[in-house]
Amino acid sequence: MANASHDLDERSPGASSREDEQTQQTVTQAAAELATRRDESEFAFKDLDFRSASLTGLLVLAIIAALYLAKTLLLPIVSALVLGTMLSPAASFMQRRRIPRALAAVLIVLGTFGAFALVIGLISAPLFEWTSRLPELAALLKQRAAVLERPLATLSEIAGYFGATNGATLQWPKIEWVQPTLEFLSPTFAELLLFFATLVLFIASWPDLRRAIVLMFPDRAVRLRNLRILNAIEDGLGAYLLTVSLINVGVGTMAGLVCAVSGMPNPAGLGALAATFNFVPIVGPVVTFVVLLAVGVISFSSIATGLLPSLAFAAIAFLEGHFVTPAIIGRRLALNAFAVFLSLAFWTWLWGPIGAFLSSPLLIVALVIKQHFLPDHDPTAPEQ
What is the dihedral of CA 358, 364, 368, 371, to 10 degrees? Predict the structure, then answer.
């Protein structure tokens, strides 16, 4: 018995060492399996993120394609919804004065149509006259711009010293684009009918439609958030339309006065053109400047005199764009200039000139929704 106990004591250190080794191996294997599972989970998570991003990208592309392909249907409807939201505060004001909502909607739409007809009447007469005389006006413009031939020849000689093979020549635009452009800008009768019908029905039924949108969700917090979003969109678009309309009417009036004082032909039509184009940010004033420049150069015998109306309008547009509009609209809606430019480029590419007009209102809607779903935080700046 003593010998057996002695042999067990002698084997104990070896057995303990083997058990320690087995325990260490088990721990190592468990750690390796845990690391493998962690790597697999991280890979699966990254793969899930990649799939989610891919699906989101495909969804965005599908939406853009649908907006482009269904332009004939969606453009009148979206235009009517945006304009109807802008005009809804006026309908609510008339409703508070005991005018039925449906009658108020009809009166507002008739007034809007009358304003459009007035502007189109002021612009169409000189536009048709100029387009019918395009070959003559182009030849006259080329003749008046003959003073630029010597500077261009000098520029060509300078370019020749640097190895340029093509001389600098003044390329005059062709006039074949006029008829396709007018056809593109002229909506069909069905589109106009769809636009005005949607506009009247939307303004008349907007309170009921808003109530239905709010009550669609059972949660009270979601209902309140949706109500705040709809109210903010209506107030923002209404204030935008009123403010921008007053500013653009002022710009058009100033441009018309400048044209009248300088002796330009049809100052009322040019003023209406300036007011209309000014609804399109960035591009509108540039187009008006080019039109005034061309009309001035053609109308006056001296190029210096012809430049004065366009330069005066450039000063008016500069003051309006950098001081008047930011001081008034900036208090209510902080629109980033880069975001405005991107929105203008995207919607113009997608829906043409009407998309350019809708770019700023749609950007306002997107900003309102973003502010309610992703509110801005004001973190404390890190200490230097």
Answer: 130
